[in-house]
Specification:
Layout (H helix, E strand, L loop, with lengths): L12 E4 L6 E3 L15 E9 L8 E8 L3 H5 L5 E6 L2 E8 L9 E9 L7 E10 L3 E3 L2 E3 L3 E7 L1 E5 L4 E4 L4 E4 L6 E5 L4 E10 L5 E3 L13
Antiparallel strand pairs: 1-2, 1-9, 3-8, 4-6, 4-7, 5-6, 8-16, 10-17, 11-14, 11-16, 12-13, 12-15
């Protein structure tokens, strides 16, 4: 998909400098970030409209493929194949958790709620960041499902901090303020799927209201 078709609200990441507490803004999510070359960054792999009439809840499947060839040629508007993290993947939005495709089933998330919307889109992205890195507080216009490829991840939300290890997932509901945090001593690499309201941006940075707090990953 040509990057010229994307109109993306930048999602900026912040690094807390040890010993100073000063924040340094990192790069936004882009179509071909340094993450694709084994460095730090956030890459938007695809952004597509989903079929009209789609209603939730849906089941999200994450499958691993041997290659992109045949599967890539036969995909429809709710199944998306791509390369990420040195492997080939298939993300599918289905009505059933049993509809696996020609790959190895890795994870599924059942009953993903969708907010009211005339039409939905899907954005798939991967992000690799080092220890001590934080995102700005932001929210999405639909649910975000995160699958951890490597390292330890944490997501601070108003009611809890979700700590994840490789192979684990978390669903962040639509409109939920949250912040991504890299915990542990290794680079955190995640695959994220945002099913968003197509009339709005997928991601919106935000400022927390006075007195509001997120649960801490510490």
């Amino acid at each position: 998909m040509s990057t010229s078709r994307w109109s993306i609200a930048p999602l900026l990441f912040a690094l807390l400098t040890p010993g100073t507490g000063a924040a340094q803004l990192m790069s936004a999510c882009v179509a071909n970030s340094p993450e694709r070359r084994g460095e730090s960054g956030c890459t938007i792999l695809l952004r597509e409209l989903l079929p009209e009439g789609l209603r939730g809840p849906v089941v999200l499947h994450i499958d691993r493929l041997d290659s992109l060839g045949h599967d890539h040629e036969t995909l429809d508007s709710t199944r998306f194949a791509f390369a990420a993290g040195g492997a080939f993947w298939l993300v599918a939005l289905e009505s059933s958790r049993s509809d696996h495709h020609r790959g190895q089933h890795i994870a599924w998330v059942e009953s993903v709620p969708l907010p009211p919307a005339t039409r939905y889109g899907v954005q798939v992205q991967t992000a690799a960041f080092g220890p001590g890195m934080y995102s700005v507080v932001h929210h999405h216009s639909g649910p975000e499902i995160v699958y951890v490829l490597a390292g330890d991840a944490c997501y601070e939300m108003p009611t809890r901090a979700a700590k994840l290890r490789p192979g684990e997932t978390v669903t962040i509901p639509a409109e939920t303020p949250h912040r991504a945090v890299v915990i542990g001593s290794a680079t955190r690499h995640v695959l994220a799927v945002i099913v968003y309201d197509a009339s709005r941006p997928p991601t919106t940075p935000m400022e927390m209201m006075p007195g509001s707090e997120l649960a801490s990953c510490e």
